[in-house]
Design a protein that fits this description.
Strand order of the largest sheet: 3-2-1-4-5
Helix content: 40-55%
Oligomer: single chain
CATH topology of the largest domain: Rossmann fold
Distance between the termini: 67 Å
Shape: globular
Number of domains: 2
């Protein structure tokens, strides 16, 4: 009787240890994947191209880096995108992010024939998708026939933007990606700051939405 009871207890303990080991393993995997979220979303996969598309909402330091990339890699054209400004448009000569970022690049020393602004319509949802549509329509209107182009975005926003641009351009144009590192937090320790958590988690949700719904 004692042996049966002992064997029952040992069997129970072994099962418990086994379950705890499995739980610990999966917890480790989930934690590891979670910590890699920012790196996964911050897509750096440039292609050889003459055209650099820059999202107009980027901060000034990111536009400065885009200009450095433009000159270093010998691009021929920068295309700035963006929707109308939601604040201050009545007080400024620039009414949309595309022209505002174009003006910033010109102020930084770029030539007028190197930068073109392609504003998107005034939409409140799917702004990146409509920006991509605006760029495609502009290229068709100006008979720009290219096979590849690179998109410059900020940190974890880059994978979603690249995915949406690729959906719009389909197989006609290969979209490369350049992610400018955010200076608001340490990307390797994004979970240690409120800005890093907010940016990474929001972009993860937005990316899932874009993959599932296509916008």
């Amino acid at each position: 009787m004692k042996n049966i009871f002992f064997n029952h207890v040992m069997c129970y303990k072994l099962k418990l240890v086994y379950k705890l080991a499995i739980a610990a393993f999966f917890s480790f995997v989930v934690l590891f994947l979670l910590l890699q979220t920012n790196a996964f979303l911050s897509l750096n996969r440039p292609v050889k191209s003459d055209v650099l598309v820059v999202e107009g909402w980027l901060p000034d330091y990111a536009l400065e880096e885009a200009m450095v990339i433009f000159k270093r890699d010998k691009y021929k054209k920068i295309v700035t995108t963006g929707v109308p400004l939601s604040v201050g448009s009545y007080l400024k000569e620039y009414v949309d992010l595309a022209h505002l970022s174009q003006a910033t690049l010109l102020a930084l020393g770029m030539k007028e024939n190197e930068v073109v602004a392609v504003p998107a319509p005034d939409v409140h949802r799917d702004r990146t998708f409509h920006s991509a549509l605006a760029v495609k329509e502009w290229m068709l209107k100006n008979d720009m026939r290219i096979e590849k182009m690179n998109l410059v975005s900020l940190g974890p926003h880059s994978r979603r933007s690249t995915n949406l641009f690729q959906k719009v351009f389909e197989s006609e144009v290969e979209i490369g990606s350049i992610a400018i590192e955010s200076r608001d937090y340490d990307p390797d320790r994004w979970y240690a700051s409120s800005e890093g958590v907010r940016s990474t988690i929001n972009e993860a949700i937005a990316y899932a939405y874009a993959v599932l719904l296509g916008k």
